[in-house]
Amino acid sequence: MTDNQKLMQEIESFFEAHKNGLTPEESGGLIEKMRDAMLIVPVNFPQDETLAAMQKELSRTGAPVKLPKDAKPIPVLIQNPNKEQFLAVYTSLAQLPKKVKHNGVVEMKFEACMNYAKTAKNPVAGVVINPFSHNFILKPRKEQQVTPAQFHVLARKNVEYVLLPHSIYTKGKEYFDSIDAGVLFQFFQDQYLGKIQIPYAETDFEVMQLGINPKLDMIHMAMPAKKLDQGGCIRIYATWHKEADRAGYYMIVRGENKSERQFLYMDDTGKVTDLGAAPVESGEMQQVMDLELERYKGN
């Protein structure tokens, strides 16, 4: 069966590196090197004709037997003191203790082991490599199922609080000047592609570019009223201070109640500042302009 001497050396180096305070990256990227590794997994086969046939073939050849399609091995799980269950895998037969009760072993790729931990019907917290020596524990991040209503909220927050402001702050004035309804719609299309039907059309986005001050350019973005939940943007104001050559990002968002509106500012690090209750709609642009001109006063 697989001899993982190199992998064993990587694991040893990993633990040694962490004793010396090094990060996983500095210890050689162990996880990346494990992706194609074949690991030994103790299993229990049902006592049936399939098992008997495999045992007969094994006794005849003495070599590992290819797993038949109808074989149904059940991996051996072990439990920690917190009663969490883990899939136990081993880098070699020498690492497998005799006290682990099983009637067979199979070889599985590392990624297949991690996928088993993600998708097993019984709760499996993760994978533990060589639990009786290295006890190297890996817990996969399990995908969470969300409802369509939850997806609409997540998609909107991802565009309004992450993707759009990041693009405005990092892509420069030429990108700033290119923003229109089509650009906003494309952000949302990318979120929904292949998942659920997008509830928006390009006509749901209204964009106006304004030269309201010799020092300041502004883009007024009216976001769709559909699927607007707490924290969702009603309007967004992006600014560009010409002399400072810097962008700004302001949001008018829905409060806990539909009638409540909050005024937020996000800086280029993603930090959000609550500016209090939003001004009346007719006063929003003036307040944004005043704040931005004050921010770079003296420029």
List keywords for this structure.
alpha+beta; 6-stranded antiparallel sheet; 8 helices; 25% strand; 13 strands; 4-stranded mixed sheet; 299 residues; single chain
Helix and strand arrangement:
Elements lengths: L4 H15 L10 H5 L3 E7 L4 H13 L12 E2 L1 E3 L5 E5 L14 E6 H10 L6 E4 L6 E3 L9 H23 L1 H7 L2 H12 L13 E8 L2 E7 L10 E9 L4 E9 L6 E6 L5 E6 L3 H15 L4
Parallel strand pairs: 4-6
Antiparallel strand pairs: 1-2, 1-5, 3-4, 6-7, 8-9, 9-10, 10-11, 11-12, 12-13
Helix pairs in contact: 5-6, 5-7
Account of the protein in words:
The chain has 299 residues and is an alpha+beta fold. It has 2 domains: 5-138, no CATH class; 148-295, no CATH class. The protein has helices at residues 5-19, 30-34, 49-61, 110-119, 148-170, 172-178, 181-192, 281-295; strands at residues 38-44, 74-75, 77-79, 85-89, 104-109, 126-129, 136-138, 206-213, 216-222, 233-241, 246-254, 261-266, 272-277. The strands form 3 sheets. Strands 8-9-10-11-12-13 form a 6-stranded antiparallel β-sheet, with helices on both faces. It has a 4-stranded mixed β-sheet with strand order 3-4-6-7, with helices on one face. Strands 2-1-5 form a 3-stranded antiparallel β-sheet. Strand 3 (77-79) and strand 4 form a beta hairpin. The protein is elongated and about 90 Å long.
Biggest pleated-sheet summary = 6 strands, antiparallel
Shape, please?
elongated
Amount of beta strand: 25-35%
State the distance separating the first and last CA atoms. 71 Å
The computed structural class is alpha+beta
**Helix count, DSSP H or I runs of 4 or more residues:** 8
Mean pLDDT: 83
List low-pLDDT spans.
24-28
